[in-house]
Design a protein that fits this description.
Helix content: 10-25%
Strand content: 25-35%
Number of helices: 5
Length: about 190
């Protein structure tokens, strides 16, 4: 498994509005993991539909668990391992990491486009120059926009994913917008 969750001797609801303890298995563990994902998306809506990022948050904040079972050749201190994966989910640690802002640093290229006025901004904020950083961004997907400048073309809007508690770097490129050279056709020159 990639991760584990409480699933042994769980008290759960039963038909006719009652609760009974002693339930065990993945049917009891899976709702804990689904609840963790719902908590994280509720706390930070930018994580919506970001399955890889949600999995990474759960894995990296899990309480590490080891085993001496030797399942699949695991050693007694291996993490992840084939019994507990990265460990048991930790909702508080995952929540804190999911709401901890990161930083985006954007480098624009080529230099001639930067010198010609190339700039960037994230989520409609203020324009910034190449190499500047935007701190305080919630983990998840953000919209990166490049300023349109004469003589250059680029994909104006791009998506950038901020990783929690880390600096994320993004390289954005302008391309020279040049007219097609028709001179050889007009002069009769051969290629």
């Amino acid at each position: 498994p990639a991760i584990t969750a409480p699933g042994d001797d769980i008290r759960s609801s039963v038909p006719q509005s009652g609760y009974v303890g002693g339930w065990s298995g993945t049917s009891m563990a899976a709702p804990h993991v689904a609840g963790l994902a719902a908590l994280l998306v509720s706390a930070n809506p930018r994580l919506r539909a970001q399955v890889d990022l949600l999995e990474n948050l759960a894995d990296q904040t899990a309480v590490p668990l080891t085993t001496t079972q030797g399942c699949g050749g695991d050693g007694p201190t291996d993490i992840p391992n084939n019994v507990y994966g990265w460990g048991r989910i930790d909702a508080e640690a995952a929540y804190l990491k999911a709401t901890n802002p990161g930083t985006l640093r954007v480098t624009l290229a080529p230099v001639s486009a930067v010198n010609g006025g190339g700039q960037w901004r994230v989520d409609g904020g203020g324009w910034q120059v190449s190499g500047q950083s935007q701190p305080g961004l919630q983990p998840g997907v953000h919209e990166l926009e490049l300023r349109i400048i004469p003589g250059w073309k680029t994909s104006v809007k791009q998506a950038g994913t901020i990783v929690p508690e880390e600096g994320t770097s993004h390289a954005a490129h302008y391309q020279r917008s040049t007219p097609t050279p028709w001179l050889p056709l007009l002069t009769g020159a051969r290629p």
